[in-house]
Amino acid sequence: MTMRRVVVTGLGIVSPLGVGHEIVWSNMLASKSGAQRVTDFQVDDIPCQIACRIPLGDTSEGKYNPDDWMDVKEQRKVDPFIVFAMAASTQALRDAGYEAKTLEQQERTGVLIGSGIGGIGGIYDASITLAEKGPRRISPFFIPGRLINLASGYVSIEHGLKGPNHSVVTACSTGAHAIGDAARLIMLGDADVMVAGGTESPVNRLSLAGFSACRALSTSFNDTPEKASRPYDKDRDGFVMGEGAGIVVLEEYEHAKARGAKIYGEVIGYGLSGDAHHITAPAEDGNGGFRSMSAAIKRAGISTAEIDYINAHGTSTPLGDEIELGAVTRLLGDHAANVVMSSTKSATGHLLGAAGAIEAIFSLLAMRDNVAPPTLNLDNPSVETVINLAPHKPVQKEINVALSNSFGFGGTNASLVFRKV
Amino acid sequence: MSDIEDRVRKIVVEHLNVEADKVTEKASFMDDLGADSLDQVELVMAFEEEFGVEIPDDAAESIQTFGDAVAFLTKATA
Questions:
Q1: How much is the pTM?
Q2: What is the pLDDT of residues A341-375, one digit of tens each?
Q3: What is its main location (chain B) (predicted)?
Q4: Which of A71, A255, A364, A388 has the most Cβ atoms closer than 10 angstroms to its Cβ?
């Protein structure tokens, strides 16, 4: 069967670099970092005491005010990851200039938003309530406000979207899988428009303790948080957790054209693979990532020589960065020297289930503006490479095709390929 | 206005995000103040917490309006 074409027509983002894709993008191109010391809960007994945090303040200044995005009464019932998703979804639909007004439009518009760990903060709090006060003190909103698919649920209720209502949970690949799977729903004709992406609110004492126990987080930069996320650099020692949401409006190409929508790019490739190797460590030969990238490129029907920019998974962990770089080098062959690859996690931190979604947004904006965002703190690469890793500053370059990688715990890999329309 | 009324009204205003002057004696939580069945459960929990009483399920079902709540809690704390 013929696959329908899918394009991106709206962007929404809540992130440590701000709220709204233009302010976030300009902060990123100005090489700003969202990292800071954690001061709102106890961290002195945890090895990692930093995180990338959403700046709170006026929406008009590109900061985050949850009251502008969700009814105060509803906010109280849910974990922040749902509020982030509401904020980013409303932005994306506004940016797309799309509202599902008729019943037919509503039934042809769906939602697919995922999260890596969902309402872990609320689960932590409720378990304390249960232990201290007993089961009668557990709120009836405890379950519905913590379930991962309730981000999709709340967004569908807010905007009257009655098409496919779905969710994804694949750790740090969630955002990329959500966008890829949603695009396929449109390609196959199950919907004409999808609101898709990822959201995460992991910055709390329990998550920091848990990821610290996995030895996944940076621990040597507690006094200089903005230096901690340093993908490919020889002094990197783990990732920095981030919070926020990235949401895109995906639309069938003719549908977008017919209403004169602005188009950021087309989703031409999506590839998935599994490492079948280890619960947290990537396979050392990079085979999983290599196969997800290869599958995406094959699906896109392009050659590797057409890739201009790669938004790396690049989390700043000692193992993962070099393994991904090796897989990309093998994939690109002689073309490697022509490609810019950067890790925007150096600025935003690692938004876990939202990472793949905000990085898809950065890939689309890189195409729009023909500029590759920088990899901050890359002072001394730990390995030699012919690939331009865009250290410190953005790189001006014509970008027609961009690839974005996301790899998650459990050995789950996703790659997306976008092209200018 | 009694102290109990003030405390109940404060909880209702906070939980249902409504104006205090809408919370009249006859105001029904579900019909007039926008509560759904889960909001209603949570309201009763908040009353229990605030007044240090236990409200059994069958009693909770009979608390439909602000007046019902004040009457029940006045009796329960007497």
A1: 0.96
A2: 999 999 999 999 999 999 999 999 999 999 999 99
A3: cytoplasm
A4: A364
